[in-house]
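Q: Here's a chain of 430 amino acids. Please give me its 3D structure as tokens.
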Amino acid sequence: MRHTATVLTISVLVFFTGCQQSENKEKGFSLEDIKKVYKAAPKGVQTRWISSENKKGEKGKGGMTNKGAKGDAFSMIGPGDTLVIFDQKGPGIITKIWAANSFAWNQENRQKMSINMYWDGETKPAVSAPFVDFFGMGLGLMRPFENVFFSMPEGRSFNCSVPMPFHTSGKIEVVNESEDFIMFYYQVDMVKVGKLEDDTLYFHAYWNRDTTTTKGVDYTILPKVNGRGRYLGTNIGVIGNKKYQGTWFGEGEVKIYLDGDGEFPTLVGTGTEDYIGTGWGQGEFDNQIQGSTVSNKEHDLYTFYRFHTYDPVYFHEDCKVTIQQIGNTNRNNMVGLIENGVDISAVWSYVHDDGYEAAKRYLDMENPPKATDADFPGNMSNNFYRSDDFSATAYFYLDKPSSDLPPLPSVEVRTKHIKEKVYQKLGELK
């Protein structure tokens, strides 16, 4: 009886000791903790603002110059220089980035400015993109808009609220490849934490541009990236090919290849404007997860975005994202283009009077009709492959602080045709 009691006592002690160890074990901090606005922060969690007024975000050392009277509100970035705007040890979570700068006044400099982000001591950036494009607007344009992650109040400043956690270190730099001095205001907000949750992923952003997409070949928004993560979304810029003037560019479907997909993807949309939540073409609008910030039919200039928040796109092995280059027009326009020497042919038509057979899939036919044939069925709506100028910023999270994706394209690629095809067409060049 005494032996049984001793065993029971030891068992109870082991149980309570285990509970105490479990209670004392440091719990990881996450964005969900920040969202609980009514709760006090755990001990050790600290808020820091990093700006030109407190470059290191040190306690009690903000605004010290000029006797505290706004002595260093901005920094200057010389031609060819790189400015480090954030360099902190972790663990921590960047919660907001704000900037306003003088290259907004000179559009030709915008695509010559880029932003890089490094996590946990990596030498290859996880984020590398033209500055304006990173902040949610394609083609280096600036317009008032607001969504769940980015905003440009009055079209004059840059805001990003994508959470960016890091374990041991985080670094952000801005690169000036223009020939001018840049007046640069910024603030990076963060929380220092004791520990992140074990399944915390790293934020990444990838930008690329194809000035002349290949007909029949999908444009790649995000090349295949290996690892476990989550595709967060994209913003896209389109400069339409003038030879297709008067036709609609956006019939292409977004495709997302997941976890070993081969020729065909697991996820596929139904059209470009459909992917951003609208239909039958796209005007200008900005919603929280989807929007079309520029829609200029006269010059075929478009910028639009889509984020996957409550409709997440997870991957466990790899992910690749593309969009088809497909346009649409009526038969008369198509015949006119052909007569003007444009290499164009229908790949699909909608024939209203054919009921269940309304969709004509020409690529599945052995001898498809041509638009110039007298018996061509598609008078109203015809899809065709086209070649345009596409660029995109892809946002995603990954279980590693760097990836094997290609580096940021050169400033020559980023600026090609932007002046004459975008700023001059929109009458914005200053």
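Q: Can you summarize the key feature?
A: Residues 346 and 384 are 5 Å apart (CA to CA).
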